[in-house]
Design brief:
By secondary structure, the protein is of the alpha+beta class. Helices cover 26% and strands 34% of the residues.
């Protein structure tokens, strides 16, 4: 997956997801960086999702670990 855009201070958009990836798998994966408040698909094909963290610092940490796609 690619973390491409900070949508809100504590929310990132993740794209390039495999269609078989579940929301729970996404939540578990991104929880390594901080407390995840919500994860929701952004498309019918489940190729993109929004991940919302409790704290902005967690979203910032993810964006520092991956190369953003603009």
């Amino acid at each position: 997956p690619h973390a491409g855009v900070v949508v809100a201070p504590s929310t990132i958009r993740v794209s390039g997801l495999h269609e078989s990836l579940t929301l729970e798998q996404l939540r578990t994966s991104f929880a390594e960086h901080g407390e995840v408040l919500s994860v929701e698909y952004q498309s019918d094909k489940h190729s993109a999702a929004l991940v919302q963290y409790r704290d902005k610092s967690a979203a910032d940490a993810v964006m520092k670990r991956v190369e953003p796609i603009v």
